[in-house]
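>> received
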Amino acid sequence: MAGTRKSAKSKLVKTAIAAGTPLAKDLWDAINTDGRAEAWAKSHYAKARKSAAAKTALGRVQLTVDRVREYADHSSSPNAHQWRDEANNIASRIPLVKVQRGKERRKSVSELQRRADKLLADVLDEH
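>> returned
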């Protein structure tokens, strides 16, 4: 008896998915007639990912170096090239630190945080 209930539930789920998929596509096509809904969804998804990532130590380091690079790209300071190079150097190490474990990872994260904080302080001290 339990086997037939499971089978019936499975068939019901499959039927609901089969019926819902075309409806969802039609609804999406109606909402996204000019592409604005898609652009909005992509934009907000990216913002949500950045926000969630910024809650971790490595996420904050990444956010710091991204902002410094962005600032250096538009800065007329003679140090902008150095800031960009240091930001790129720090950013290139983040994927390596992500695969570390335990004590080595904590030490590496701490070092990257220190370097990112120093870089940001150097940029802010310039102005």
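>> Residues 2-31 form the longest helix (30 residues).
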